Amino acid sequence: MSSSTAPPPGSARLRADCGRCFGLCCVVPAFARSADFAIDKPAGRPCPNLGADHRCGIHTELRQRGFPGCTVFDCFGAGQQVAQVTFGGRDWRDAPETLPAMAEAFTVLRPLHELLWYLTEAVASRPPAGLRADLERAHAEIEALTAGDLARLRLVDVDERRERINPLLSRASEAARSPGGADHRGAPLLGADLRRVDLRRANLRGALLVGADLRGVDLGLADVTGADLRGADLRGADLRTTLFLHQAQLDAARGDIRTGVPAARTRPAHWTALALTPVRQASRTGGRRSRPR
Is the pTM higher than 0.70? Predict the structure, then answer.
């Protein structure tokens, strides 16, 4: 089963549920005035757009008002975990003294939940039995950590956990992509025209694809773990079986009604609904392909 199928059981808790959170993503991180954020906001201070109900007051106008960075942030369900489990539903507005501790918990749980998401996707890719057992064991260990109280969370070395799990995820990627395609891991492909590059089964882990032209490209079984797709043009591209593609990456990119999106993801609302002139599926032709620039 590829990442284009329905999400495995339990993955729903790794989706942000803002109705059960206390607006922590609008409070805990620091924002620096930039193309992504219209204002400076120090860490731990509520965004001025955050309402008393913990809802964003300009949610439907974030891009127009200069906050596109907010639209692509994903807590992977860590917000409601902190609010409802770690702190048992106690609202920081009613108990302001709890906010620093909530922020501390959020900074640990968010990366742990992200690791859980990747492990869930890796198991769903149907790896070999031995690797699947290792992935499930790692998932259970991280799952147990997320259920702990603040005292236990303070003992978690997130970087050490990443170092232990990343090799497992790489092995799962190699198994799913076998035989593997081109290796563009960490490649600086900002603004590159990749329309005639074969990216099927490619390793694009950590690739910088900001503003890249991927129109009509087949990204079947390509691994986009950590790839930066901000402003990438995905119009007409096929991402239905792309590996480790999370919603925030789609939200950060540009696409249209012809873009193939995995069944477990949502087509971003800001993508144009216009049917543009069909784009040649270069990656499916037999012609010679250029190297990425």
Answer: yes
Helix intervals (H) in 125-229: 129-146, 150-153, 158-177
Q: Please state, as a whole number, how many other Cβ atoms lie within 10 Å of the Cβ of residue 98.
A: 17
Peptide bond into 48 cis (omega under 30): no
Between CA 48 and CA 25 the distance in angstroms is 13
Burial of 159 (0-12, 13-18, 19+ CB in 10 A): exposed
Q: For 150-195, how does the pLDDT look when each residue is reduced to its tens digit (9 = 90+)?
A: 999 999 999 999 999 999 999 999 999 999 999 999 999 999 999 9
Q: What are phi and psi of 188, to 5 degrees?
A: -85, 90
Percent of the chain with pLDDT strictly greater than 90: 85
**Beta bridge mates, 228:** 208
Read off the pLDDT of residues 87-96 as tens digits, 9 standing for 90 and up: 999 999 999 9
Closest CA to 274 of 243, 248, 236: 236
Whether 123 contacts 135, CB under 8 Å: yes
As a whole number of Å, the CA-based R_g of the chain is: 20
Q: 15, 265 in Cβ contact below 8 A?
A: no
Which one, of 273, 263, 181, 257, lies nearest residue 219 by Cα?
181
229 in Cβ contact with 245 (< 8 Å): no
Give CA–CA dist 270/123, Å, rounded: 31
**Please, are residues 131 and 172 in contact by the beta-carbon 8 Å criterion?**
yes
Tokens 């149907």 found at:
126
Q: What are the CA-CA distances from residue 99 to residues 42, 43, 123, 152, 176 (Å)?
A: 14, 11, 35, 18, 42
pLDDT, tens only, 232-276: 999 999 999 999 999 999 999 999 999 999 999 999 988 975 444
